[in-house]
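Backbone-to-sequence.
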């Protein structure tokens, strides 16, 4: 009888320990540090995706009527691994947006009354203090961008094919970038993206604790060039199409 009682108590103790461990794990990721950790992990994942996405889109600069670009788009749309990663991508993107908004609201709630004198420039760059605004611009852009291209290519279907028999996503792109306000929106979004990356690239490594006196300056330098090149390439695409340089 005593042995059964001891066994029962040990069972409840084990359940309580597991519950406490799960609660501690959940609290860790709901804390300010945990939210920043999620931002860092999802941010690095999205940075990797941007490089692939930019490379595929930059195939329009081959300027062969979109044939090369459509091959790349066809591969992205039909490869099972890419399609599976899209689910992970969307989950990471949503997590990044949600945690970003939570951090903005949390920071505002922690300081409901602004300081009489606030010299933020003395401690950080303006874009580091404006991640909420830059992120909001990018969110608006993403809604427009996904509805223009991703929904069309994945759900509603592309009505035309090119001379090689691939779905002509290039024709959809050319048609969309004949509208001036869309081109302007893309340019503004890419400016926001550049500043967002300038802060987020190095910050993600720092948040994950990957700091080293030898490698951190290299990471920061690479992050600057990455932010500028990616933003310029993405912005150049609608501008070149609107100007008639790519047909």
């Amino acid at each position: 009888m005593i042995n059964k009682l001891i066994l029962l108590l040990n069972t409840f103790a084990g359940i309580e320990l597991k519950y406490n461990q799960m609660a501690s794990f959940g609290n860790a990721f709901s804390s300010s540090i945990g939210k920043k950790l999620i931002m860092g992990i999802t941010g690095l994942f999205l940075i990797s995706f941007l490089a692939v996405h930019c490379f595929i889109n930059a195939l329009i600069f081959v300027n062969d009527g979109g044939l090369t670009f459509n091959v790349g788009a066809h591969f992205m749309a039909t490869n099972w691994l890419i399609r599976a990663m899209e689910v992970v991508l969307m989950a990471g993107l949503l997590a990044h947006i949600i945690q970003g908004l939570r951090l903005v609201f949390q920071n505002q709630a922690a300081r409901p009354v602004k300081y009489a004198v606030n010299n933020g420039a003395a401690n950080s760059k303006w874009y580091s203090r404006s991640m909420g605004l830059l992120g909001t611009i990018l969110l608006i852009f993403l809604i427009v961008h996904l509805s223009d291209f991703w929904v069309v290519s994945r759900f509603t279907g592309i009505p035309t094919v090119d001379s090689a028999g691939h779905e002509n996503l290039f024709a959809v792109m050319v048609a969309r970038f004949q509208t001036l306000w869309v081109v302007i929106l893309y340019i503004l979004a890419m400016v926001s993206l550049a500043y967002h990356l300038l802060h987020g690239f190095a910050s993600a490594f720092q948040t994950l604790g990957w700091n080293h006196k030898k490698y951190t300056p290299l990471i920061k330098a690479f992050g600057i060039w990455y932010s500028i090149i990616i933003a310029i390439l993405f912005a150049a695409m609608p501008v070149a199409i609107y100007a008639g340089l790519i047909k």
